[in-house]
Design goal:
Layout (H helix, E strand, L loop, with lengths): L2 H8 L7 H14 L3 E5 L5 H10 L5 E7 L7 H8 L5 E6 L3 H15 L6 E6 L5 H12 L2 E9 L6 H4 L12 H5 L2 H10 L5 E7 L3 E6 L9 E4 L2 H14 L1
Parallel strand pairs: 1-2, 1-4, 2-3, 4-5, 6-8
Antiparallel strand pairs: 5-7, 6-7
Length: about 240
């Protein structure tokens, strides 16, 4: 499905802007992952941008989140856009780590050595406990040459309030103030021997590629779009 078509249908629905949706859409078209995993989708706007691009070459998406109500829901958007054959929706009671556990168990029980995913997008509670564990679980399900992407690299509980996530009520002030996805990416992903090509875009999206350990080259790129640089400049002027 063309980007303009899906963007018109999703206009005004949180939490993914059309500009960010374009990044997702173009990424999928460029890398062409056939099997995509999304952990955390809320309304499912990002899911629909992924699916629209996957529709161009026949890929599939497993979208996983909690069993909670959003209006509109991903189920509704999937139906409205005709993506029933592209998106499989999985809902869990406590965390998407349980979906990953079941997926690993399924692989082990069947004796299937093929890794089921080529690309994983993680956009959930943004905390060290859930997303740190999720990285190691996803790694066991991600193919060599596959890509992992984290959203909200610089997001903090302190800056955005205590109304998001599962464990924030028991967090220390240090945990509330630190960008926990940044910690996951720097301390777990970048130090893992099977990942390379690290890239951070606009302090928001963090990307790494899974490779064979012997092929690892430690590279790190930080990119800032023109829109991001303008936004930061305006904020700096207003602060003064």
């Amino acid at each position: 499905m063309q980007f303009s078509t899906v963007a018109r249908r999703l206009e005004g629905i949180p939490y993914t802007s059309a500009a960010k949706g374009r990044v997702f859409y173009d990424f999928i078209l460029k890398h062409k992952p056939r099997r995509v995993l999304e952990l955390g989708f809320a309304h499912g706007v990002s899911s629909c941008y992924f699916a629209a691009a996957l529709d161009e070459f026949g890929g599939k998406l497993d979208a996983v989140d909690l069993d909670v109500s959003f209006e509109p829901s991903l189920e509704e958007l999937r139906s409205a856009l005709g993506f029933e054959n592209l998106i499989s929706i999985h809902r869990e009671k406590s965390s998407y780590t349980w979906f990953l556990k079941k997926k690993l168990e399924e692989q082990f029980s069947s004796g299937n050595v093929d890794t089921p995913y080529d690309f994983c997008f993680i956009d959930g509670p943004k905390d060290w406990t859930n997303d740190g564990l999720s990285f190691f679980l996803v790694d066991k399900l991600l193919s060599d040459g596959g890509t992992i992407m984290f959203d909200d690299y610089s997001w903090t509980y302190r800056a955005f309030g205590r109304n998001k996530g599962y464990v924030f009520e028991n967090m220390s002030e240090e945990e509330l103030a630190q960008p926990q996805i940044e910690a996951v990416f720097r301390l777990l992903v970048m130090q893992h021997p099977s990942y390379s090509g690290f890239e951070v875009i606009d302090d928001n999206l963090a990307i790494a590629k899974k490779i064979k350990s012997e092929d690892r080259v430690f590279e790190h790129t930080t990119k800032f779009s023109l829109a991001y640089r303008i936004m930061k400049a305006v904020k700096k002027i207003n602060w003064r």
